[in-house]
Inverse folding.
C-alpha cells in the first residue's frame, strides 16, 4: 500500500475570527475552530497515520489532537521533545504495548505561520484603511514582498520546504503514513512543491481551515486525492 501524506491547516483561531494579523502570536482556536478540527478529523479517521508533524504554535497542536480524537486506530498523539533535556529524558515510554498505541508528534518552528512583523495584532480592515488596500494586498498576497519587519511568503517557503524534504519525506520513503498539521502559509510552500505551482499560482492558492488535503506518495511523485 502506497504511503499517504495528509496536510491540514489548523482550525479557525480567535484572531482569525476577529480579523487580526496573527503570525507567530500563539493564539488558541475559536469555538468554530474546534468544530472545524473535529470535522476535519472525521474525514481522515479511516486513513492510517504512523507519524505526525506540526508547528510550535498551540492552534496547530490543538487541531492535531482534536482531529485524531475520532481516528479509527484509537492511537494517542504523543508530542516528542528530542534534545530538550529532562523533557525528553523523563518523557520516555517503557511499555511496548503502550508505545504501539501512540502516534509520535514532532514539532518544528519551520512549519510555523508566516511571521507578520509589525502587523501582528492589527485589524486587517483598519490596516487597509491606514495604508491603502493595494499596499496591504501586496503585504498579504505578493510572493517576495515582506510586511514591515516580517516575512514574505518566499521567506516562509525557504524554511518550511527544506524541513519538509529533510524531515518529513524520509518517513514517506520508509512507507509511513504522515499527518502534517500546520498553517496557511507554511502549507502553501509545501503544496507549491507538491503541485509544481509557480509564484503567481501559489499566492492565489487558498488553504481552508480544518480541511484535510491528501496525497499518495510513490517513487518521488505526488498524487492528490480528488
Amino acid at each position: 500500500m502506497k504511503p499517504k501524506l495528509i496536510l491540514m491547516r489548523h482550525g479557525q483561531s480567535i484572531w482569525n475570527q476577529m480579523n487580526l494579523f496573527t503570525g507567530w502570536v500563539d493564539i488558541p482556536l475559536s469555538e468554530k475552530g474546534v468544530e472545524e478540527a473535529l470535522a476535519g478529523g472525521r474525514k481522515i479517521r479511516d486513513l492510517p497515520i504512523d507519524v505526525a508533524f506540526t508547528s510550535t504554535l498551540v492552534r496547530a497542536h490543538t487541531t492535531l489532537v482534536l482531529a485524531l480524537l475520532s481516528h479509527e486506530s484509537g492511537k494517542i498523539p504523543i508530542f516528542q521533545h528530542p534534545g530538550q533535556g529532562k523533557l525528553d529524558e523523563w518523557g520516555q515510554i517503557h511499555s511496548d504495548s503502550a508505545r504501539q498505541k501512540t502516534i509520535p508528534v514532532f514539532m518544528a518552528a519551520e512549519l510555523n505561520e508566516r511571521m507578520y512583523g509589525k502587523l501582528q495584532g492589527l485589524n486587517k480592515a483598519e490596516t487597509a484603511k491606514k495604508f491603502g488596500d493595494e499596499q496591504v494586498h501586496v503585504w498579504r498576497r505578493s510572493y517576495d514582498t515582506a510586511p514591515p519587519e516580517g516575512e514574505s511568503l518566499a521567506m516562509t517557503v525557504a524554511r518550511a520546504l527544506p524541513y519538509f524534504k529533510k524531515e518529513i519525506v524520509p518517513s514517506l520513503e520508509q512507507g509511513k503514513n504522515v499527518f502534517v498539521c500546520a498553517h496557511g502559509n507554511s502549507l502553501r510552500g509545501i503544496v507549491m512543491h507538491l503541485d509544481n505551482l509557480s509564484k503567481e499560482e501559489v499566492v492565489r492558492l487558498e488553504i481552508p481551515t480544518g480541511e484535510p488535503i491528501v496525497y499518495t506518495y510513490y517513487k518521488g511523485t505526488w498524487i492528490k486525492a480528488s
User: Anything to note?
Assistant: The domain at 4-224 is CATH 3.40.50.1240 (Rossmann fold). The first strand starts at residue 4 and ends at 9. The chain has one domain: 4-224. The radius of gyration is 18 Å.
